[in-house]
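Subject: design request, 640 residues
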């Protein structure tokens, strides 16, 4: 969206332009700042500029306008006195022309008060003579106050039906926050929510009316009005639950869409569903972008991590918008990258969530050990975690855990008032089924999902706890030493969780030919998302040089150093009746990955014994499957 505020010197272009820029959150530019030196010199000497002077400057501005439009828009203050000048500036189809007009006397008074400006008041007459009254745009009397003029401009925009650049369907937690994020970055957005009589009525229009401070936001209660407001090619972001609702919503939209329109599914859809949708919609000429979005409500509002995949050409069109709303990494680069074809964006988000599950579970196990093994109060446990935060273990999930441990309600810790039944929406389970499908070990992350399932049956747990007289045992060991072991155990569990998730992505990427870029994936996860951490920052660099976490030299050093701590804490915790599903599974996974001579030879022998499933001999260079008649060989062995 481009606004050009025109008018002669002293009409208040900068004041109105700056105010518009503040209200729309679009950047402000003053055309005078783009004059070449020779023009500035002429004007300072009181010599009026000729068309010969102005045309290259206007042509340069016209190119800039195209760049700004691609980047989401801008407000430009430019005298644009003649129609021919304005025609040069009209380098894109839609421009909001705001023409400021006032009496000569007022203009002269204003110019006299100006300091540090190279335009002497004597040039006013020449400007007024040159001014050609445009027959379009909004003409504003400069006698109005700037605030009044801004209001008139926004009313005008709504009545002239300025098209929105993006449409968002689903005004739940994420849809609302993303909509405000877009408009705050100067991108006009139309929002829509389904109508459920008596239950969900006027959700989108109420949301827009309750956010009057964002003039680029428009709410619609009818799907056709909403769609009519979005400029072509239409870019529509779905922020609704995964599954059937996505297919139903797409079916409702299809009759209104044209070839080249773009649909983005920003929810947590299963990537195999997204694979199919990309194919089906491509056949219909609609570009489909399955996009992982992470960061929760706050991330969506202030800067999420975005993982789009699917139609790459459509992604390129959306990149300037995504770049504006995404979180920024430590180098200031937006946390968004084109992940890969088909449902790759949703696949990567699914793995993100399974790492999220495991990270949450490991923290929960750690806090349990701190509180009931080491007998620390929630505040003291929080103090320990704060120390870890500042000594190399920074992570968003650890930060919020500290806040949770410090939160009281009427003298009671809120945490202790929360029922211990963890819910889940599906991404964890889908990760497990994917790992099983591709035969990739996923134990620590699998256990995080199982732990939530175990937690669900509170009544059984309560009964069985009584039957078994279960209680946590307190640790008798030295607290300082235990805290050291526990910190290292936690640090290693984190590494294992990430190794597991990235390993799955590496194997699936190979199998599906997706060519995922792991350094980029880690980079877009360094900010905005739930699993952002100092470790993720290390991984963004690590994957530039190492094929995997487990083979990286620096990581190997840490893994070797902290392995005894994890083994010690898991052993101690289990002996004292603490369930530690993710920590212990993580350790087992690690040991399984680094064991050369595993016990799997016995499994093969058993399979062959009872089912003639065959096995491969170590001493056969050709590795051919063989079967043994175990009983007859055993009987023969006896006689030897
Ligand atoms: N919350 C989070 O932290 C994150 C969520 N996500 C994902 O984003 C998506 C949206 O999540 P969130 O905003 O939290 O969910 P909410 O439950 O807050 O909102 C869901 C929205 O979808 C609408 N909706 C529900 N069913 C349908 C349907 N059948 N057809 C059309 N619209 C429907 C709801 O409308 P109504 O008000 O009428 O019910 C509501 O506007 C989900 O896929 C979620 O997994 C992704 C990242 C983080
Ligand atoms: O996608 C998210 C964050 O990135 C969701 O907030 C998170 O996955 C919640 O999932 P669940 O309800 O299964 O715990």
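Subject: RE: design request

Done. Sequence follows.
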């Amino acid at each position: 969206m481009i606004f050009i505020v025109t008018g002669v010197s002293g009409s208040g272009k900068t004041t109105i332009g700056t105010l518009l820029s503040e209200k729309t959150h679009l950047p402000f530019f003053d055309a005078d700042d783009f004059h070449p030196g020779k023009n500035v010199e002429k004007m300072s000497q009181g010599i009026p500029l000729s068309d010969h002077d102005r045309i290259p400057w206007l042509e340069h501005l016209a190119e800039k306008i195209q760049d700004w439009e691609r980047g989401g828009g801008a407000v430009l203050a430019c005298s644009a006195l003649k129609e021919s000048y304005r025609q040069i500036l009209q380098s894109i189809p839609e421009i909001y022309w705001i023409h400021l007009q006032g009496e000569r006397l007022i203009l002269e008074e204003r110019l006299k008060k100006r300091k540090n400006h190279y335009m002497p008041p004597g040039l006013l007459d020449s400007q007024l003579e040159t001014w050609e009254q445009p027959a379009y745009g909004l003409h504003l009397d400069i006698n109005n106050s700037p605030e009044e003029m801004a209001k008139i401009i926004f009313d005008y925009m709504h009545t002239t039906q300025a098209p929105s650049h993006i449409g968002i369907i689903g005004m739940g937690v994420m849809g609302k926050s993303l909509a405000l994020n877009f408009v705050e970055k100067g991108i006009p957005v139309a929002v829509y929510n389904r109508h459920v009589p008596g239950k969900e009525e006027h959700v989108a229009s109420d949301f827009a009316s309750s956010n009057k401070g964002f003039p680029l936001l428009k709410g619609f209660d009818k799907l056709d009005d909403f769609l009519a407001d979005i400029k072509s090619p239409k870019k529509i972001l779905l922020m609704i639950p995964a599954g059937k609702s996505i297919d139903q919503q797409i079916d409702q939209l299809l009759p209104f869409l044209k070839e080249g329109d773009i649909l983005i599914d920003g929810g947590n859809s299963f990537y195999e569903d997204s694979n199919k949708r990309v194919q089906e919609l491509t056949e219909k000429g609609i570009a489909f972008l399955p996009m992982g979005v992470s960061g929760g409500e706050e991330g969506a509002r202030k800067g999420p991590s975005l993982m789009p995949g699917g139609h790459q050409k459509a992604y390129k069109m959306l990149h300037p918008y995504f770049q504006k709303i995404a979180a920024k990494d430590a180098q200031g680069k937006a946390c968004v990258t084109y992940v890969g074809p088909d449902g790759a964006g949703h696949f990567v988000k699914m793995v993100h969530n399974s790492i999220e599950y495991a990270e949450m579970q490991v923290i929960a196990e750690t806090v349990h050990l701190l509180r009931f093994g080491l007998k620390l109060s929630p505040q003291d446990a929080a103090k320990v975690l704060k120390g870890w935060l500042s000594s190399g273990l920074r992570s968003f999930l650890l930060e919020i855990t500290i806040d949770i441990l410090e939160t009281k309600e009427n003298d009671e810790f809120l945490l202790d008032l929360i029922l211990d039944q963890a819910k889940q929406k599906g991404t964890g389970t889908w990760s497990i089924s994917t790992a099983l499908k591709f035969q990739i070990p996923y134990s620590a992350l699998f256990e995080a999902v199982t732990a939530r399932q175990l937690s669900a049956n509170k009544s059984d747990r309560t009964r069985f706890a009584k039957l078994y007289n279960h209680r946590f045992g307190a640790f008798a060991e030295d607290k300082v030493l235990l805290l050291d072991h526990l910190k290292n155990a936690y640090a290693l569990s984190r590494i294992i969780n990430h190794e597991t998730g990235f390993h799955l992505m590496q194997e699936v990427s190979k199998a599906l030919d997706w060519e995922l870029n792991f350094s980029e994936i880690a980079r877009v996860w360094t900010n905005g998302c739930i699993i952002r951490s100092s470790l993720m920052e290390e991984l963004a660099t690590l994957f530039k040089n190492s094929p995997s976490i487990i083979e990286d030299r620096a990581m190997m050093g840490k893994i070797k150093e902290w392995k005894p701590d994890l083994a010690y804490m898991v052993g101690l915790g289990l002996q004292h009746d603490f369930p530690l599903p993710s920590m212990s599974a993580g350790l087992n996974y690690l040991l399984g990955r680094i064991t050369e001579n595993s016990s799997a030879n016995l499994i093969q022998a058993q399979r062959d014994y009872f089912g003639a499933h065959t096995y491969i001999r170590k001493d056969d260079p050709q590795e051919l499957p063989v079967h043994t008649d175990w009983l007859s060989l055993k009987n023969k062995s006896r006689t030897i």
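The radius of gyration is 32 Å.
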